[in-house]
Amino acid sequence: MHYSSIYRNWTDRGVLLRDALLDLVAGVVPVPDTGDLEADLLELTDGVLDLYQTPVGRILLSTTRSAEEALVDFHSAYWDLRLEALSAIIDRAVECVRCRRPATVG
Hints:
Elements: H1 3-9, H2 13-28, H3 37-52, H4 55-62, H5 69-100
């Protein structure tokens, strides 16, 4: 692929790096769905911690010291992904509790 093709889709290397890292992280640490809140939270935490032990994870952590605009955007987008994952797990747990409640008559 020629570099002009890349710059047609991404304005600079920082934006390209941000998008590539976000795609990679989304696939590496999937949102678990075991049916058990504690197990899901532990599995997600273990997945994130395992990621940080890899070369890619170390790159993710090193980007926290960068003031480059695209990487600052990456941090925001990365934490949005992590919060979405947590929200999905908690929303499922809340729905599960609601399903188990007996109907009230009233």
